[in-house]
Amino acid sequence: MDTEPDVIEFARTTLKLESCSAGDAERDPLPSGAFNAITLWGLLQLIYRPQALLEKLRGSIVPGGVLGIGVSNFSGMGARVFRAHWKGLGVPRHLVHFEAESLRRLVERSGYEVLSLTFESPYWLIAESMKSMLPLPGILGGISRRSAASLFATFQRTSLGETMTLMARVRS
Asked: What is the pTM of this model?
């Protein structure tokens, strides 16, 4: 389920997923125990009531099924260095931001067992933050963005990474 028609089309044609449909997980009814996996890549920070959504989704996951969440890491190195220029802020679309512990607590309070929490520092996030903070033109701009991305890559598998991916399953 997704609200974007092009995402649904991609899932059906490229991924050959037959049971894809357009809809809004927050507002639309969801079938009980219908999904082996539900992923929320970049979604949780865009909604007003993340806990209510996680609780609702819990009933739609089959026993042993998985929930995957991907969000910006508000306590990452980029948020600290780039501050208002950090593209992980997603202003004005992002309504809420997460740190590792706040995301973990939210997921556990919503009835899930956290399986893993990993961190990354995608090039695009560092490069765009650097470009916003220091808008250098041409080759100089490219060198500054690549240098910043290389520096931040040293933090990417640590809690200082720019993004977090959390995997969980419904608590028994």
From this structure: 0.91
Q: Is 130 exposed, middle or buried (0-12, 13-18, 19+ CB in 10 A)?
A: buried
List, in order of start, the domains of the chain with CATH numbers: 1-30 (no CATH), 35-170 (3.40.50.150)
Which among 71, 76, 61, 80 has a CA at the least distance from the CA of 103?
Answer: 71
Residue of 89, 164, 83 whose CA lies nearest to 122: 164
CB of 127 closer than 8 Å to CB of 164: no
Res. 1: pLDDT tops 80: no
- In the block, tokens 């004005």 appear at 92
54 SS3 class: helix
Q: What is the pLDDT of residues 97-123, one digit of tens each?
A: 999 999 999 999 999 999 999 999 999
